[in-house]
Amino acid sequence: MDDKAKILLVDDREENLIALEAILSSLDQDLVRARSGEEALKALLTDEYAVILLDVVMPGMDGFETARDIKRRKKTRDVPIIFLTAVNSDPDYAFRGYAAGAVDFIAKPFDPWVLRAKVSVFVELHNKNRQLREQAALLREQAAMLRARLPDPSDGNP
């Protein structure tokens, strides 16, 4: 199994995707690009992601709509979303971001060290949760094997 986590980078601007990849490449995880909300939703159908970096202002489906769709799906509702947006004077933006399901809201231009640190925390949490799921499955399997070997007390045999 590949131990690298997938990080979904959603932005309609190529230069922003290049910047995100440059900042996050040192984390040595799988960085997956999406150029629109629709493309992000498609990517989420096939793979599991540790965290999503989502631009707010995009043509067509904006970041808020995309986040709402992500949070509506059972498979993706627990994936953390960090909104990225240009500094906006509208104080409503942060509220709308959190209401749509974001775990964080970072204004551009952002500090690369802060962004990398935040993303690495979510990657670590994702990996720990994956380990816990694997251990729980192994324990269930071992318990089933033990039950299969034990005599059935209802058949009256000692």
Describe the structure in brief:
The chain has 158 residues and is of the alpha/beta class.
What is the strand and helix layout of this fold?
Elements: E1 6-10, H1 14-24, E2 30-34, H2 37-46, E3 51-55, H3 63-72, E4 81-86, H4 92-99, E5 104-108, H5 112-149
Helix pairs in contact: 2-3
What does this structure look like?
- There is one protein chain.
- The chain is an alpha/beta fold.
- It has a single domain, classed as 3-Layer(aba) Sandwich (Rossmann fold).
- Helix content is 49%, strand content 16%.
- The chain has helices at 14-24, 37-46, 63-72, 92-99, 112-149; strands at residues 6-10, 30-34, 51-55, 81-86, 104-108.
- The protein has a 5-stranded parallel beta sheet with strand order 2-1-3-4-5, with helices on both faces.
- The chain starts with 5 loop residues before the first strand and ends in a 9-residue tail after the last helix.
- The mean pLDDT is 89.
State the main characteristics.
Rossmann fold, 158 residues, alpha/beta, 5-stranded parallel β-sheet
So how many helices? 5
Q: CATH first level: which class?
A: Alpha Beta
The CATH architecture would be 3-Layer(aba) Sandwich
Strand content: 15-25%
Give the CA-based shape. Answer: elongated
The name of the CATH superfamily reads Response regulator
Strand sequence of the main sheet, in spatial order? 2-1-3-4-5
Instruction: Please bin the fraction of helical residues.
Output: 40-55%
Q: What is the tally of beta strands?
A: 5
Indicate the mean pLDDT: 89
Instruction: Sketch the major β-sheet.
Output: 5 strands, parallel
For the record, the count of structural domains works out to: 1
Order of helices and strands: EHEHEHEHEH
Q: Per CATH, what is the topology? A: Rossmann fold
The secondary-structure class comes to alpha/beta
